[in-house]
Specification:
The chain has 476 residues and is α/β, with parallel strands linked by helices. It is built from eleven helices and 21 strands. It folds into two domains: 283 residues, Rossmann fold (3-Layer(aba) Sandwich), CATH 3.40.50.1820; 134 residues, no CATH class.
């Protein structure tokens, strides 16, 4: 017998958000012989539309509510949507880090539908005037504190995700994580005031790369013995997580929403996830999902009808998300510094492929954290794209402009304390730390130069003015 808990996303005020998925899943499970009865399904109702409620508050309340379920064998499987994914992942971390304060209930399967694991570009807009007006019209608040977590590059989301990247493999402990996300927006739900709702490479709310937990943490920093202006690249990859693109599904909506519309592909994929009981089966499903994703990526042309006008063409190139944090070796934020991406040898920012940068957004609370949405296909090089209904070329072949590097121009580059302009080593290629449909957190750490003029001794006992000190040599 399986107990299944559903956890919805941000700003939901009605359990109608789950649509037909719980009932369809119960029916299909019964038809396949899986012991999942309707009495074993629980629908969550949690508050994220109150400006005083934080993610930590929701996690505490989630743990309390779980205890009241009196679960058989003290375990459950969970299906989340959107913000529900980070909620449950934060609960798992709290369980591990605060064992005396949180329950010992065991989560066996976490199946995340369109999770905002690395946040959403829409969160920043939800905190603005338009977001507040919309919330007011609905009779609720925007949920400011939860939106803080959901903003791209937030300290809270990066803390959770870096913990995951550098952590052990959950599958080795019998806990299986799955990410299922739609591959395109619902064009009927496009908001003309907000272009993010029609953004290719997303489901209309969450970018594909921001949902995927197959992420990387890269660090560009000075290495002892290397030139002062050279930054070496170090990379850590997250444990493998099963990841599937649900073709044609969007974030929400009764017609194409990955949860509310209960598409057959979503139901089938969830049942495949629930059947996983060991590491070997999990690895096999990861391989199967990867193969199916590759087939989806090969069919990349979408034609959008535009009334009496010619169809609008969308080329669904794989994208990637690069979240850059600029600091120095003391941890100080380098606000005002410039990061330039370069291509070729010698490196040149003007040689980057045309159209590679799709969007950039600075975190509103940490201005030194910048999220760059990149076209991975254009960076890696991609063959000619033709019209499926004819021989007309939609886009010519694009060559890669490797190697790709980065150069940092600090805001303070002289004085008693300053930073040096620095760049990646010639042998390093940033494309090696980027992957299709994935997120990379890139920490760029500049050496902090402190000069001997900051602290000196003198043997002169007469009064001496040192209000205009000479910088002197840099301290080794």
């Amino acid at each position: 017998m399986t107990t299944l808990v559903f956890v919805h996303g941000w700003s939901v005020t009605n359990t109608s958000t789950y649509g037909r998925l719980p009932l369809r899943l119960q029916q299909e499970a019964a038809a396949s012989g899986m012991a999942l009865r309707i009495a074993d399904i629980w629908l969550s109702e949690y508050v994220s539309f109150d400006d005083d409620v934080t993610m930590v508050d929701i996690v505490r309340a989630f743990d309390h509510a779980l205890r009241d379920l009196h679960l058989l064998d003290a375990s459950f499987a969970c299906i989340t949507h959107s913000t529900g994914g980070p909620v449950v992942r934060e609960w798992l971390r709290a369980q591990r880090e605060r064992p005396g304060a949180f329950s010992t209930i065991r989560l066996t399967h976490l199946m995340m539908l369109a999770p905002a694991n690395f946040g959403s570009a829409l969160a920043q807009l939800g905190k603005g005037v338009l977001g507040r007006l919309r919330a007011w019209a609905d009779g609720v608040e925007p949920g400011q504190r939860v939106l803080d977590w959901l903003e791209l590059g937030s300290a809270e989301s990066l803390s959770l995700n870096l913990d995951h990247i550098h952590g052990d493999d959950p599958a080795q402990r019998g806990r299986f994580l799955f990410v299922l996300t739609g591959d395109r927006p619902d064009r009927e739900l496009y908001d003309h005031i907000n272009s993010y709702t029609g953004e290719d490479g997303s489901d209309g709310v969450v970018r594909i790369a921001a949902a995927n937990l197959n992420a990387r943490h890269a660090v560009l920093s000075h290495t002892l013995g290397s030139a002062d202006d050279a930054l070496a690249l170090h990379v850590t990859r997250a444990p493998r997580t099963a990841f599937k693109l649900v073709a044609g599904a969007a974030h929400s909506g009764e017609a194409k929403g990955i949860m509310a519309s209960a598409p057959t592909e979503t139901v089938d994929a969830l049942l495949r996830c629930l059947r996983v009981t060991d590491g070997a089966a999990y690895a096999q499903l990861c391989d199967d999902f990867d193969r199916e994703n590759a087939q989806r990526d090969a069919d990349k042309v979408e034609r959008e009808p535009v009334g009496p006008f010619p169809d609008r063409i969308h080329i669904h190139d794989p994208r990637c998300l690069l979240i850059v944090r600029l600091t120095d070796e003391s941890g100080e934020a380098l606000t005002g510094s410039r990061l330039l991406l370069t291509a070729g040898d010698p490196p040149n920012p003007d040689w980057m492929p045309a159209g590679f940068l799709l969007d950039r957004q600075a975190n509103s609370r940490q201005r030194h954290v910048i999220s760059l949405f990149l076209n991975h296909a254009l960076l890696a090089g991609t063959p000619r794209v033709s019209n499926p209904s004819g021989r007309r070329t939609l886009r010519a072949a694009v060559d890669a402009h490797r190697p790709y590097g980065a150069a940092v121009q600090p805001a303070i580059h002289q004085g008693l304390v300053h930073h040096l302009q620095a760049a990646t080593l010639p042998g390093d290629d940033l494309l090696d730390v980027l992957a299709a449909h994935q997120t990379t957190v890139l920490d760029v750490v500049l050496p902090r130069r402190v000069h001997e003029g900051v602290f000196r001794f003198t043997r002169r006992l007469e009064p001496e003015d040192f209000s205009l000190p000479a910088p002197g040599e840099a301290i080794p």
